[in-house]
Amino acid sequence: MASSNEEPTTASSLPADGLALFLKRDCPTCLLIEPLAATIAGTAAPLHVYSQDDPGFPSGMSQVVDDRALAVSFMAQIEIVPTLIRYAGGKEVDRAVGWARDEWRRMTGIPTLGADLPAFQPGCGSKSHEPGVQEHLQARYGSTPLASRKVAFGGYDDDIELCFERGWSDGLPVVPPTDVRVMRMLEGTRRKPDEIVGDIPPNLAPCTVEKVAINAVMAGCKPEYLPVVLAALEAALEPVFTLHGVLATTYFSAPVIIVNGPIARRLGMNCGVNALGQGNRANSTICRALNLIVRNVGGGRPGEVDRSTLGAPSKIGLCFAEDESDPQWQPLSVARGFAPGESTVTLFQGHGPEAFVDQKSRTADELARSFGRSLCNLGHPKLVQSARAVVVLSPEHHAIFKQAGWDRARITEAMMVATMRPGTDLVVGADGIGEGIASNRAHEAIPKFFEGGLELVRAGGPAGLFSAILPGWLAGRNRDELQLVTKPVGD
Amino acid sequence: MHADNWLRDPTAERQPLKRPRVQPPTRLEGLTIGLFDIGKTRTPEFLDRLETQLQARGLKTRRYGKPTNAKVATPQIVQQVVDEVDAVVIGLSD
Question: What is the ipTM of this complex?
Fold first, then answer.
């Protein structure tokens, strides 16, 4: 690409009549036909030569148009050099791509042209089609498909600071959404930019694929993450996810995204060491994009509709992949009804993680009881059936269950049973603690979660008898109105 | 305009691009007023007269300034103004 201070040539440089030759020095075929330019210029119709990388090339030509800015190459839709085009009456009427002796002779009307050259030699890629260049050229010389409002800034202004000043950030720097970046992001999906994905709470503002792409740029996503962000947004907009409530609650919750299937490997997502932590771009940016959409499109901001008493670091965005490397382990997506090998996102209203430590239990029974004890403490030890939870089972803890032949269902059931407590321990006032369940349940034996309120995900590094618990939103007591949502990842 | 000199709006575009100015206080009673000299030659005269009138109304004032009108105020000075006063008058005149 030419630097911005070079004077760009423009489409008006194209001839109305005559021949136009596009080439670059860094092309063996262009070097091969270099001597022909002067021959054509001396005997055929007017020849206009456009050089993409060196205005001194081809040698021996008095007038070569400097097209290092690639403006003319872009407007003439040059994909290969050399390309010879004939114009008549302002329109293209003929085109030869690469060196093809018969075609060039026909177009130039010179029957002996290139007699000492091979009959055919393919050209090289045009500089206007090098990676990332087309979006720049489209933004600068073409028309963009983007409909979102332009927010101008001065040449010496800091665009990252502009994003802060406009209130577009979650508190961390965002990637400024330039036309080029947004167009590149949109390359990540086949969906049209103007397609409405849904209405984003709290303001119920319609959100297009383009707005999703803009916020994904700002979050730091790569284009290939966009289908996952779109699937996550669609999951979040399902009524049973209650996105408005998750945003508005005084509790700690926010969307947590769990990714299953081949897409996780394709994106290089982390399901291993430090899976819930920093350091992986996809893990760090996909859920951030979802939360930025809620902030920017939906208008959901802390201190306004977002009334979280304390919030949680996971409200920036908590996203990770499940480790599906153990063929005996049933992935979360399969447990939720999707086919093995299908890419999905599962959204959970939660926060965390909270640590679970057990370095001494060696049997599945011991370990399940141990998990049960810790799960009982979520929120408050005397609160039951008030929230869901997701256990992130580390490989070393899973190995203990696996050795006993326990599968997902067996582990979940054993943990549930292990959370069972007598109602007398849980009622209001028991143990001199005001918090607790209604006193009329004193005679019951009550598990921490209602049926289906505990999910397992396998993730984490190979070493460490530590697992994690992601506590769910307290409104999870409304078990039918508030559920996890799984969606397939499209393209 | 160069293509890189704008960003695409990530919002629902329900607010005007031009952001509304912060409303000035409706009453000055009890407020501390900052008087900010941008460094042009006769600004102190203007601010002196203004300060006399504000103090005559029983208002507290504090003076600030840039060493030269050719440079923007430093973040330290801007932060000091934000910390210490409720409203500020910037003397722009020669």
Answer: 0.86
